[in-house]
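Please review this pair:
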Amino acid sequence: MDYRKLGQALFGALKTGQAIEPLMSSYPDMSLDDAYKVSLAFLAIRQKDNGEKIIGKKIGVTSKAVQDMLGVFQPDFGFLTDAMYAADGIVHMDCHIAPRAEAEIAFKLKKSLKGPGVSAQDVIDATDYVQTCFEIVDSRIKDWQIKIGDTVADNASCGVFALGDDKVDPRDLDLAALEVVVEKNGAEISRGFGSAVQGSPQNAVAWLANTLGDYGIPFEAGEIILSGSLVPLHPANRGDHMRATIDGLGVCEVEFV
């Protein structure tokens, strides 16, 4: 398997907005390790050709609602780069293929972590603050026909992400009990709780730290870690406005243009 060739195909899809056929259709025996090597090749091309810099990591497909929607029944994982950060909350549709929005909790780290052996409490101890977050996922795989190997290879289907303004100490919150309300164009479309992601967001972050630790990849101090969606994914179109409100954690808004 030519990992760089597959990474180049994903990069081409990213640049042109033209999705490709599922990788696992051509490589049905692709292992998770193979998929991760494709992801690293994809990332290396983004770093070299686009000048992107890693600013964090993400876990996805953590909640039952998202797993049922995508037909993928284990978490995926990937990297965040500076090019993926929509600091102004503006999501440019020209840069996406089939975007879907998910509301989640983002962790900003003040200490580095490296698995294995990272616990949920270790995550809380290493966190500076948490924020309400929208991740806009976008598969480079045609029609979202993904299996776990496809989405891991495709950097966990990450498009861009936006963060709310409020920065809250996680030690002041019961993250599992936090409720998010998601609105689209002024109408409520979903609700969910922190417990949707592996019982609590810090559990999901610990899982990610340990999974990446198996590959020798640490969480670095200062990085942003996305902990997974609390609600089903919502398709977005040009002109849409979405708002996620988490009690005690604040608001995040995104505009699709």
